[in-house]
Amino acid sequence: MRTLIILLFLIIFFLISLPVFLYEIILGKINPRKKVESSQRIVSGAFRVVAFLSGVRYEVKGIENIPKDQAVLYVSNHRSYFDIVLGYITVPNLTGFVAKKEIKKVPILRVWMKYLNCLFLDRDNMREGLKMILTGVDLVKQGYSVFISPEGTRSHGTDMLPFKEGSMKIAEKSGCPIIPVAISGTDDIFENHIPWIRRAHATIEYGKPVYPDSLSKEERKFLGSYVQNIIRSMLEKNADGSL
C-alpha cells in the first residue's frame, strides 16, 4: 500500500509540474539564481513528502561541517535511489546532483534536474565525461555545489566499490572543499525488497571539509581513495552506534 501511495503522489506531482514549469521559465528570465532556489525548494518539498509516505526515519549528522559561504563538492557512497531523496532534504545550499545519462530519458524528471543544475554522466564516453567535469567546475565557480557518488553505481555489499579518481577533478580544478558524505540504511527502504518500499531508519553524515591543496602530494595523487577512507570510517562508526 505504501508503494502505491507514493506512486500516486509522484504522478500528481508530475502533473502539477507542467504549469509550474511555466512559472519557473518566467522566473529564470528575470533572475536565474532565484529559479534554481525555487526549483530546489519545490523538489525538496516533494522529497520530504516521499520520505514521510515511505515511513523513513532519518538522522542527520555533521551539518555544521558544511561551509556556509562557498560552494562545495559533496562526495558520497551510493546505496540507493533514496540517497538523492535524503541528500536534497538535508543539503543547506543550492546543489546539483550527478546522475547517469539514462535518467535524461525520464520525462518531467529530466526538466526538474535541468532546473536544479544536475549533471548527466556518460560512463562510456571519456570526452563527454570530461565535458561534465568542466561544467561542474563552472557551476562551483558560480556558487552552486555539486553532489557526486564516485562508485559509479549503487553498491549493496558490506564495503564500497572503488572510487573513480576523476570524480575529484571538480574540486581540484575549482579549488572548492570536498565534503565527505556517509549514507547508510537507505537500501533498506527500497533496494533490499524491490519493488516494495518499507519503513526504515537511515543516516546521512556530513564530514569535515577536505581541502585538496592542504594535502600531501601522495594524498592528492589518490584523492578519491583518501576521501573514500574517510567515508568508510564514518560508516563504520555509525554501524557501531558510537558518537
Cα separation of the termini: 36 Å
Largest sheet: 7 strands, mixed
Task: Please state how the strands of the largest beta sheet are arranged side by side.
Answer: 1-7-6-2-5-3-4
Query: What's the shape?
Result: globular
Overall pLDDT: 92
The percent of residues in helical segments reads 40-55%
The tally of helices reads 8
- The fraction of residues in strands falls at 5-15%
Gyration radius (Cα, Å) is: 18 Å
**Secondary structure: number of strands:** 7
Topology order in helix (H) and strand (E) letters = HHEEHEHEHEHEEHH
Structural class: alpha/beta
Low-confidence stretches: none
Write the layout of secondary structure elements.
Layout: H1 2-30, H2 32-54, E1 57-61, E2 73-76, H3 82-90, E3 95-100, H4 109-115, E4 119-121, H5 126-141, E5 145-148, H6 169-174, E6 178-184, E7 201-206, H7 217-221, H8 223-240
Parallel strand pairs: 1-7, 2-5, 2-6, 3-4, 3-5
Antiparallel strand pairs: 6-7
Helix pairs in contact: 1-2, 2-3
Short description:
The chain has 243 residues and is an alpha/beta fold. The chain is built from eight helices and seven strands, in the order ααββαβαβαβαββαα. The longest helix is centred in the first third of the chain and has 29 residues.
Protein architecture, described:
The chain has 243 residues and is of the alpha/beta class. It contains 8 helices and 7 strands. A 7-stranded mixed sheet has the order 1-7-6-2-5-3-4, sandwiched between helices. α1 (2-30) runs antiparallel to α2 (32-54) and α2 (32-54) crosses α3 (82-90).
